[in-house]
Amino acid sequence: MGDVFLAERSGPIRRVALKVIKQGMDTRAVVARFDAERQALALMDHPCIAKVLDAGATARGRPFFVMEYVDGLPITDYRAIATAWARASAPSCSCASARVCSMRTRRPSSPRPQAVQHPRRGSGRAPGA
Predict the structure, then answer these.
(1) pLDDT 10s per residue in the chain (129 long)?
(2) Environment class of residue 34 by beta-carbon count within 10 Å: exposed (0-12), middle (13-18) or buried (19+)?
(3) Interatomic CA distance for residues 51 and 9, integer angstroms
């Protein structure tokens, strides 16, 4: 939906990420989705999410927004690594989850009144007898 560029902000000087809608993708639906993404990012306040610093439109009317630049792997490379790791560890995870599932005890969600007995009023016997 958008192209992301590494840019430099003039004042104060710092590296930023600039996201602009791709040429020819400026339909109303795409622009609305782009604006929703920009607004959602602007509302988020988390150390692992880049903050939106500025927004606007180019001279040709293409919307853009400026975010903090975060140095690291591109998301596509990260996804490839994470997918490979998940595939490699999937057999051990499924075995572990099967063991956990087999260890669970099943209890009725709401016991019947006759199944619950008071120790003094129950069957007349002492508990444990």
Answers:
(1) 788 889 998 878 889 999 999 888 878 899 999 999 999 999 998 888 889 999 999 898 889 999 999 888 877 888 888 888 877 766 655 555 555 555 554 555 555 555 555 555 555 555 555
(2) buried
(3) 14
